[in-house]
Write a structure and sequence with these properties.
Rossmann fold, six-stranded mixed beta sheet, five-stranded parallel beta sheet, alpha/beta, binds 6-O-phosphono-beta-D-fructofuranose, 2 domains
Length: 523
């Protein structure tokens, strides 16, 4: 059964939220914390090794109550059940949405088109394990008998961003293999990577669900031609594998069918790192770490599926985002991990979030009369503090921000970590509580030049009252990373349900592709 089609703005809860928004005009985070010192305990959820403190938001208990009422008015619970049980909720493409099944350890059968998909999922996982072990151990030899030293993932969008982000994020856990990612059609991208490679010791993983994507196929052909300069067609089997659902096209490319890792149409590109698209992750950090990543995601799935909405991390994050997007009319949200390992998280989430919820037609086929997908962007702390945070603190725009932190550092440089986390907390405090004119006057009271003080004060005032979420894990591990990514995936889902849009198609990327092809024909 598809999801219900309910225009959220017609619900009782929406109307109540509009009225509540007016009540909240004078809300001050500073006052709220003064009046309720344990506010962060009241607005926090802990789960496993994760705690989410959402107390620094422009909310009261009533806000959360009404937002949950909105979720209930659009039958979110029923939608979640449909999502996990394989209903055709991607209606425009007539597909189930089951990336969650890829990390589900349950033995219960799960049917898609009358077929239990569990055995197939397990079979592919086994294939990933066996293949990764052979490459990592060196049992797999290249065409001249040498071990593989480099892996190149050739893909774009979901076939690149997820694995690239995770391989970078889990560098601490990586083995001796060097992993490269080629995505852009820009020949300079592939040229720079080829300069670093030895064809005798490189494995190429071509990742494309459709195996028709212009960028990937062009890059794959360029690489094949480069490879064949020093090897024969027969050697391709030792150096090229593919991850795809288009078996015919793979065959035409010349890849040995034994070297094909299948994908399924019930896994969307931007949610596919849990499938064989994650092969380069498993190669880089080993299958056990890859499996821990999946297990972490499964933990978040179970939390999302089974927790009451007021204790449900993805639901609360999604509702807060709706609160700002649809009532405060904010335009964007910042994703700010305080770890250099998550440098690629923002670009990854840009695809996941903006390709999913950047839609303006609702599930009834009507153009929406309310805002949908937010713009997301970000960078890592503390680098971004020296870049764009000026605007977040003192600019004219309200930018709700997710601060992602880790209690323990991986390399154990405790001096660095203490400073990093002091900055993590200081930024959120500065955003929430600001610095008033009175505070500044006190601070500058011994300054000799009173007129200079008065002139400078307006520029030094921080109005505060700017929202943030503190998303804090114990440690960056494959498991906690799995939790983090699944958390955002479910936030996307909840928002799509409430906005009454189809989150799992991406027709908006097609026109540009078509026009580029037409222009190419004219060249
Ligand atoms: O950009 C559109 C898109 O279809 C994405 O959704 C997908 O991740 C990407 O292209 C790559 O597609 P494929 O895996 O089929 O090459």
């Amino acid at each position: 059964m598809p999801l219900q089609n309910i225009n959220p703005t017609t619900t009782d809860a929406w109307k109540k939220l509009e009225a509540h928004f007016l009540e909240m005009q004078s809300f001050s985070l500073k006052k709220a914390f003064e009046m309720t010192p344990d506010r962060n305990e009241r607005f926090s959820i802990s789960f496993n090794d994760l705690s989410v403190d959402f107390s620094k938001n422009r909310i009261e208990q009533k806000t959360i109550r009404l937002l949950i009422e909105l979720a209930n008015n659009v039958n979110l619970k029923e939608a979640i059940d449909k999502y996990f049980s394989g209903d055709i909720i991607n209606v425009t493409e007539q597909r189930a949405v089951l990336h969650t099944a890829l990390r589900d350890n349950s033995e219960d059968p799960l049917f898609v088109d009358g077929k239990d998909i569990r055995p197939e999922v397990k079979k592919v996982l086994r294939k990933i394990r066996v293949f990764s072990n052979k490459i990592i151990s060196g049992d797999w030899k290249g065409c001249t008998g040498k071990k593989i030293t480099d892996v190149v993932n050739i893909g774009i969008g979901g076939s690149d961003l997820g694995p690239d982000m995770i391989v970078e994020a889990l560098q601490f856990y990586k083995n001796h293999l060097t992993t490269h990612f080629v995505s852009n059609i820009d020949g300079d991208h592939i040229s720079e990577i080829l300069k670093k490679l030895d064809p005798e010791t490189t494995l190429f993983v071509i990742v494309s669900k459709t195996f028709t994507t212009q960028e990937t196929i062009t890059n794959a052909n360029t690489i094949k031609n480069w490879f064949l300069k020093s090897a024969s067609q027969f050697d391709i089997a030792k150096h090229f594998v593919a991850v795809s659902s288009n078996l015919e096209a793979i065959d035409a490319f010349g890849i040995d069918p034994k070297n094909v890792f299948p994908m399924w149409n019930w896994v969307g590109g931007r949610f596919s790192l849990w499938s064989a698209v994650g092969l380069s992750i498993s190669l880089s950090v080993g299958f056990d770490n890859y499996k821990s990543l999946l297990n972490g995601a499964e933990k978040m799935d179970l939390h999302f599926k089974n927790s009451d909405f007021d204790q449900n991390i993805p639901v609360i994050l999604a509702l807060l985002s709706i609160w700002y997007n649809n009532f405060y009319n904010i335009e964007s949200e910042a994703i700010l991990p305080y770890t250099q390992y998550l440098t690629k998280l923002a670009p990854y989430l840009q695809q996941a979030i903006m390709e999913s919820n950047g839609k303006s037609v609702d599930r009834n086929g009507n153009v929406v009369n309310y805002q949908t997908g937010t713009i997301v962007w970000g960078s890592t702390g503390t680098n971004m503090q020296h870049a764009f945070m000026q605007l977040v603190h003192q600019g004219t725009k309200l930018i709700p921000s997710d601060f992602i932190g880790y209690k323990t550092s991986l390399h154990g440089l405790s001096d660095h970590h203490q400073k990093l986390m002091a900055n993590y907390n200081a930024q959120m405090d500065a955003l929430a509580f600001g610095k008033s004119k009175e505070d500044l006057l006190l601070e500058l009271r011994f300054s000799e030049d009173a007129s200079t003080v008065n002139t400078i004060i307006p520029y030094k005032v921080f109005e505060g009252n700017r929202p943030s979420n503190a998303i804090l894990f114990e440690k960056l591990t494959p498991e906690s990373l799995g939790e983090l990514i699944a958390m955002y995936e479910h936030k996307i889902f909840v928002q799509g349900v409430i906005w009454n849009i189809f989150s799992f198609d991406q027709f908006g990327v097609e026109l540009g592709k078509e026009l580029a092809k037409k222009l190419l024909k004219k060249v």
